[in-house]
Design brief:
alpha+beta; 2,3-Dihydroxybiphenyl 1,2-Dioxygenase, domain 1; 2 domains; 5-stranded mixed beta sheet; 4-stranded mixed beta sheet; 9 strands; 38% strand
């Protein structure tokens, strides 16, 4: 058994891919998906006529890992999505995507230039037995929460 992907339902999957590729070094994997049919409706409990479009982004991974086994971020866009409020860090359920980066303030600045948003402020702490952490929470262009972290 192995972890495969995390799905993120987007308002505009292409715009979100254009954010994740340069900011986090993700790689767009082809083919793009344009999916519909009874199998989709049945498997996901969706109404008749549901359609989704999108693609997978290969997440950055360790250089020694086999790229074919890296988990992906699946960006899908439904024709008629159900709206929700912007997530907050302490709500129940899925919380955020975390990226280990070399330079937290620099990556935050790149994220903001690419259309993301601030959520918290860069903070520093020591986690006993683990190390020194620099961390900040931010948002992608659609409001999803991201954690940027660096360990020393």
């Amino acid at each position: 058994m192995r972890y495969v992907h995390t799905n993120l339902v987007a308002r505009d999957w292409r715009a979100l891919a254009d954010f994740y590729v340069p900011v986090f070094g993700c790689e767009l994997l082809l083919p793009e998906r344009d999916l519909r049919g009874a199998w989709l409706e049945d498997s996901a409990g969706l109404a008749a006529g549901a359609r989704l479009r999108g693609a997978h982004l290969r997440l950055p991974g360790p250089p020694e890992a086999d790229p074919q086994t890296w988990p992906t971020l699946e960006l899908f866009q439904y024709d008629d999505p159900v709206e929700q409020t912007d997530p907050v860090a302490d709500r129940l359920g899925f919380g955020h995507l975390a990226f280990r980066v070399e330079d937290v303030p620099g990556t935050l600045a790149a994220l903001l230039r690419a259309g993301g948003g601030e959520l918290g402020r860069v903070a520093h702490t020591t986690i006993p037995g683990v190390g020194e952490l620099t961390v900040v929470y931010a948002r992608d262009p659609e409001g999803n929460i991201l954690e940027l972290q660096s360990w020393a």
